[in-house]
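Lab notebook, bench 4. The sequencing result for the construct came back, and we need a structural model before the next group meeting so we can plan mutations. Quick request posted to the team channel:

Model the 3D structure of this chain.
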Amino acid sequence: RANASDTDFCYGDLVAVVQRGLDGIILPKVETAAALATIDWLLAQLERDRDLPSGDIDLIPIIETARGLQQIDAILAAETRVRRVAFGAGDFTLDVNMTWTRTETELALARAAIVTASRAAGIEAPLDTVWVDLADPQGLEASAHTALGCGFQGKMCIHPDQISVVNRVFTPTDA
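Done. Here's the predicted structure in token form:
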């Protein structure tokens, strides 16, 4: 996860991490197609300069502001290396002055918009927001089930203890 494109740190983050073996970059607070295209262009230059295969580094924009959600169709229509998008509820709820509750019902509209826009753009299903309460694994599991039911393909994690829960929820059964 790099710093947002409009910060003083994004460029340095990308220069430091773009190298052989890097699978992808998670880019927070994407609000415009132009910002996403700029980062895509920068990744292409770094790949070329470092003799890396062109376009191999995945770029996952996080939609976490009202402006980003409003612009999601344009963001996903930009001709970039984006194969999936992610939702960031923490900053989103702060931006729109919502209270992020344990039940997450306030996230339904944003989740539906992100899943729908992803489908319409012909990209993979999105990744859901992190679960921030590390002391509440039952809440994490409930949140993961909600995200799965909404059409997300996975959930971002902020602690290694969360991985097994998220994998269990999002891994299809043998049946």
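Strands lie at 24-27, 58-63, 86-87, 127-128, 154-155.
Will bring this to the meeting.
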